[in-house]
Write a structure and sequence with these properties.
Blueprint (H helix, E strand, L loop, with lengths): L7 E4 L18 H10 L4 E3 L8 H9 L4 E4 L2 E3 L7 H17 L4 E6 L22 H20 L3 E5 L9 H10 L5 E6 H6 L4 H8 L3 E6 L1 E2 L1 H9 L4 H7 L2 E2 L8 H11 L4 E4 L10 H15 L13
Parallel strand pairs: 1-11, 2-3, 4-5, 5-6, 6-7, 7-8, 8-11
Antiparallel strand pairs: 9-10
Helix pairs in contact: 3-4
Length: 310
């Protein structure tokens, strides 16, 4: 099947070890994750919290298995100008690490206003605080500045629209793209988070394709999402309930999405994501099924691409 892939497919370690729900996969070792990725025949991963933190050790473990570190999530708090200087300094340090690992894209998400990620929020609060006009301007200016830093290192800032944050809905994605410099701020297109935020994933792809430099392929269980919405559940509760799964196991129709990517010649990285309890949904098995499913959607004779420095 791999010789049919026109773009690079990797897998996120969040399938094995939760990032937002810490008990998911808490006892799983990084060796298990990396060995499973190699068994799947994949060569790309994102940074995970169980991976070695020492760059030399991490590089050794990845290279011994023929795996590339594609990216790592970077939270930013740029909607508040008071944090900009310290946030940009931290962003530079993040760029230095990823650049040293050979990564070309930086998964970047604003945490200001989020219930779970904003350090200014308190446990008693119940809703995401949406940005006002000043907040949007500050965020755009800060992202442009971070994008310049990324460019210094030969990398691209790819903005990750994300559930439970201030850039979640289709309208918020549109606004962010309108306010930021297209040469500095790219889009991390996530199918599952697009659906979770109320958008049509295919329409987001078509509308913003020229800004997309990185992709997460994730599916949604609609019955779980409906139940969570009825209960007014927050984002992390939705994860615990199992709202997300891998492509082919939820309600998103990936056939037109894959067809669009093939037709447009996308040849960057696309990461498989499930973000669910690995005890209930064995990561290797689910990733294998997702790969098989995506393989059925790629036209016969399509040749695998080598990826490019997106």
């Amino acid at each position: 099947m791999s010789d049919k892939r026109p773009f690079r497919i990797g897998v996120h370690p969040i399938n094995w070890v939760g990032e937002d729900v810490r008990e998911h996969g808490a006892d799983t070792t990084y060796e298990t994750i990396l060995d499973d990725i190699r068994r799947l025949g994949l060569t790309g991963t994102e940074m995970g919290r169980k991976y070695p933190q020492d760059p030399a050790k991490l590089k050794q473990e990845l290279e011994s298995r023929g795996i590339q570190l594609v990216s790592q999530w970077k939270s930013v708090l740029l909607s508040d100008p008071a944090y900009r200087e310290s946030e940009l300094a931290a962003y530079r340090a993040h760029c230095e690490f990823l650049s040293g690992m050979g990564s070309k894209v930086i998964s970047t998400a604003e945490v200001g206003g989020s219930l779970h990620f904003d350090p200014r929020r308190t446990p008693s609060e119940k809703e995401v605080l949406r940005l006002d006009d000043a907040g949007w301007r500050a965020l755009a200016e800060g992202l442009n500045a971070a994008g310049r830093i990324a460019r210094e290192y030969g990398m691209k800032l790819t903005y990750h629209h994300h559930g439970g944050t201030v850039v979640e809905s289709g309208e918020e994605i549109d606004r962010l793209m309108e306010l930021t410099d297209p040469s500095l701020v790219w889009l991390l297109y996530d199918t599952g988070h697009a659906y979770y935020g109320g958008a049509d994933p295919l329409q987001v792809l078509r509308k913003h394709y020229d800004r997309i430099a990185y992709i997460h392929l994730k599916d949604v269980r609609p019955s779980v999402l409906d139940e969570a919405r009825a209960e007014a559940a927050d984002f992390v509760t939705c994860i615990r309930k199992g709202v997300f799964t891998v492509p082919g196991d939820g309600c998103i129709d990936f056939a037109p999405i894959v067809a669009e990517l093939v037709e447009r010649g996308y040849d960057g990285w696309a990461m498989l994501e499930g973000e669910q309890d690995p005890a209930l949904h064995p990561p290797y098995e689910y990733a294998r099924k997702a790969l098989d499913y995506i393989g059925t959607l790629i036209p016969s004779g399509t040749r695998e691409g080598d990826g490019h420095d997106q």
